[in-house]
Amino acid sequence: MLDLKELESSASGTTFDLDSILEALKFNQDGLIPAVAQDIDTKEVLMLAWMDAKAIRSTLEEGQVCYYSRSRKTYWKKGEESGHKQKMVEMYIDCDGDSILLLVNQEGPACHTNRSGCFYLKTESDKVMISSDPIK
Amino acid sequence: MLDLKELESSASGTTFDLDSILEALKFNQDGLIPAVAQDIDTKEVLMLAWMDAKAIRSTLEEGQVCYYSRSRKTYWKKGEESGHKQKMVEMYIDCDGDSILLLVNQEGPACHTNRSGCFYLKTESDKVMISSDPIK
Questions:
Q1: H-helix or E-strand containing A55?
Q2: What are the structural domains, with CATH classification, of chain B?
Q3: In this predicted complex, what is the ipTM?
Q4: pLDDT in tens, A64-92
Q5: Beta carbons of A95 and B118 less than 8 Å apart
Q6: Distance from B117 to chain A by nearest Cα, in Å?
Q7: A36 burial via Cβ count (<10 Å: 0-12, 13-18, 19+)
């Protein structure tokens, strides 16, 4: 099996077979890997969710971000119910093969609270402050 | 115990006690939560690592990002050995209390390969391409 360490010294532009890279990913005991979604236009980090190998392939093939919902124990094409779809523009795997970055076009708010993103609890040394309001 | 759902409808600017929020976080079975570091200037998503409650408090108190290394099973003040320190500027917790976003000032490359960030394996439907080179 490929060790991602072997890729570290490769020059940019070098390509590898997708299947061998997916085999080298470090999924957790539930077969999942954390995926961070960033808005490609605003650069806001919108959310963190989880993917398995099938969700990664679905996202790459369909261009529509598909996560695996740990609470509902099923695939979750973001926006399928809410209409707040995430179109994948670019996907990156990290050096250690244990996390994913998605650059996306987000339709409407990414957060279920109707805020643009999920990271709205600003945390300081003594308190936490709500830092944004839902989009009207 | 506080349920973070109770905070969803709070207006921006509302504050809560740090301890009660930390108690409500959903750490995994190892007591860890994923933390995403984003460069506050370039907006690049640099890396994803893990924190426990003590690492969160250390980061908030010292302003120097402290992770918990799962491989070395110990605290890891980013840059302590490499010199490539991460200064925490802002910290956010997400709506579900199961992930953290750090906005940071990064000294030098964030990735151990000397690339600016760890997400350099650009993943497409049939191949993966190295998308950046180490900083000289």
A1: helix A53-62
A2: 25-107 (3.10.20.810)
A3: 0.97
A4: 999 999 999 999 999 999 999 999 999 99
A5: yes
A6: 8
A7: buried
